[in-house]
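Worked example 2:
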Amino acid sequence: QVQLVESGGGLVQAGDSLRLSCLASGRTVNSYSLGWFRQAPGKERERVAAIDWSGANTDYADSVKGRFTISRDNAKSTVYPQMNSLKPEDTAVYYCAAHGVGVITKGIEEYDYWGQGTQVTVSS
C-alpha cells in the first residue's frame, strides 16, 4: 500500500513561482514512477508532469513545458514539481499519483495510488 500526501499549494500572483511536495510512504514506493495531475473546475483531470523511479527521465504536458520542473528525492521519498511563471490558467487542484511500474506512463488509468490534492490558485 502506498500513501501520498501533497503540500505547498496556495494563492499566488501571475508570474510567481511555487513548489509543491508529495511525500510518499510505502515499502517499495521508490521503485514507482510518480506523476502530478491537475483538475480545474469543470475540466477533466490532466497529467502535467511525470518522473520515473530513478529521476533520470521526465515528461511534461505541452502547457507547462519550460515552466514546470519535476524532481524526486528517493532518500526522502518525496517528489517536487517546481512551478515557475505561473498563469491564471494553472489554477487547479494538483494531485500526486504513483504508478506501480518504474517507467513513465501517460495513461491516467494506470496510476494506482492518489493523494488528496492541494489547491493552487493563480490570480491575474
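The first strand starts at residue 3 and ends at 7. The radius of gyration is 13 Å.
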